[in-house]
Nitroreductase
Amino acid sequence: MDLDEAMQERRSIRGFTDDPVSRELLEEILTLANHAPSSMNTQPWHFHVLTGEVLENVRKGNTERMLGGVPPSREIPAHGKYEGVHRDRQVEIAKQLFAAMGIERHDAERRQDWVMRGFRQFDAPVSVVVTYDRALNDHGPVAIFDAGAATYGLVLAAWSRGLGAVINGQGIMQSPVVRECADIPEDQVILTCVALGWPDATFEANAVKSLRRETGEVATFQGFDEAGQGRRTG
Ligand SMILES: Cc1cc2nc3c(=O)[nH]c(=O)nc-3n(C[C@H](O)[C@H](O)[C@H](O)COP(=O)(O)O)c2cc1C
């Protein structure tokens, strides 16, 4: 698969088969993700790859705490409630996903079940917890940018090998649980996790393609000549 195709076709995958994922394949993907650029080559990211009982313990701890009313506890600032166009886009993808899954607007039980799936990392066979070096916390948000770039690389490399992934903020909503189960060193900050596995073709939400604005809406171009060329002057 070429890069353009992977970038265009990739979508978040939230339903997985029981097929196992080999450590060798995961190492290949992480080797590629590790090629991400970073501010002044700081390379602040770490990947903690969880499966089996370790991941099951994270799921259990996450679920118990969320159901028990323990407030979310993440190590990066919470994004809070989105408003305006951002809220609109959030609602848009939720509507697409619920429509695909046949979850009605007023079906509180199935909506809650969907949310709980997110806390269980969509029952994926593998979860990659992405962290960055705590020492960079006093250097502004750039380490988060760098680790985010590496995370996108991970997702694309997975996709191009037929593996499905969803970046899953819900999975680290109870970060103390993740930290303990995955034995994350204190000098790292938990950023997010990525649920990974072989896509279940019968899981309707996996077909959902989120919408994007036209390029003309998200990009502006300045200083191009009449032929539309960007060139050096002087
Ligand atoms: C930082 C981040 C956190 C995310 N957390 C979740 C999550 O907790 N649950 C979920 O279902 N999707 C999550 N997603 C996936 C987004 O919902 C998804 O990327 C977006 O709707 C666009 O859809 P696409 O990935 O299919 O293009 C997250 C994505 C990012 C980048």
Q: What stands out?
A: The chain has a mean pLDDT of 97.
